Amino acid sequence: MTDFIGQCGGYAVIDGGLATELERHGANLNDPLWSAKCLVTSPQLIRRVTQLSPSHIFTLVHLDYLEAGANIIISSSYQATLQGFEAKGLSRVEGEALLRKSVEIACEAREIYYSRDAKVFSDVIENRENLKQHPVFVGASVGSYGAYLADGSEYSGIYGDAVTLETLKDFHRRRVQVLAESGADLIAFETIPNKLEAKAYAELLQEEDIKIPAWFSFNSKDGTNVVSGDSISECASIADSCKQVVAVGINCTPPRFIHGLIQAIREVTAKPILIYPNSGETYDADRKEWVQSTGVVDEDFVSYVGKWCEAGASLIGGCCRTTPNTIRAISKALSSRSSSVTTLEF
Ligand SMILES: C[S+](C)CC[C@H](N)C(=O)O
Ligand SMILES: N[C@@H](CCS)C(=O)O
Ligand SMILES: [Zn+2]
């Protein structure tokens, strides 16, 4: 991850809200599968389908984020679980295929992005040796058990005593195995709401000898602890102790809480720190809608970026309710701090 960040110029840009963009393009995510519903019903909403007629051009979310400057795009598997698919009547084999599909869509978007960029560059630049293009990783999203519950539990982290370490490991095991073999560059464990789930992920990575790296990203609603009330230091320490974890951080958390959380994480790990906050709005899990009043506009969001870098973050993006515009602005803010770009071999 450190090499990748170096290739990105010292700071890597993570994409923005995926579900947010699907909704903006008309998807109704009021479903237990939330954004993963589109994997079952309309993958074309997530993958750009470029045909000759402009009326057939669908907005493709991954590609929009790449064009906005993202170095890491995160697959649509956040709420894609084998158990959730089975509840919809899909077989285990079909569910595993959909998990792979979520990563394949992101990898295809990266290919389209590279080939388009190559075409644009080759039209204007004769010497291909000089072509510069930003590197891109695909992260396979793993949302928490609370995300699968589809009741906003990833913002409480309270699962009850019946849910043990073994419950969580068994819940995630096959999904993690499938995603690890999907062609993704890393597994993005996102919106981790408590210490128990972090421990379950760390043990799974080791027990299953997962061959691709992972990041652990927690969420907070007070700037001091993760949402369950567990200490961010303890959570980040679990990530620090796991050899497959190559970055640790915070996502889907209001921007105003991020600075202190970066400082707390830096005290317990030397691994790269990632942050991709949400807009600061609140999620109404019953209505499956965001309450707009508490959010910040892109300008305010981006005004934090310099301070987050100074506190130690080196991977920065956005989560729910952020858009390609947010990511474009982050990319611009980071490029003024970056030291280099890579040369791409076509
Ligand atoms: C990150 S939250 C907005 C995802 C959606 C939630 N798990 C739900 O199903 O309501
Ligand atoms: N990768 C997910 C995170 C939800 S918290 C998304 O952007 O929809
Ligand atoms: Zn989010």
From TrEMBL:
Binding annotation for Zn(2+): 252, 319-320
Molecular functions (GO terms): metal ion binding; S-adenosylmethionine-homocysteine S-methyltransferase activity
Cofactors (names): Zn(2+)
InterPro entries membership: HCY_dom, HCY_dom_sf, Hcy_S-methyltransferase
GO annotation, biological process: methionine biosynthetic process; methylation; S-methylmethionine cycle
UniProt cross-references to Gene3D superfamilies, sorted A to Z: Homocysteine-binding-like domain (3.20.20.330)
Name of the protein described by the UniProt record: Hcy-binding domain-containing protein
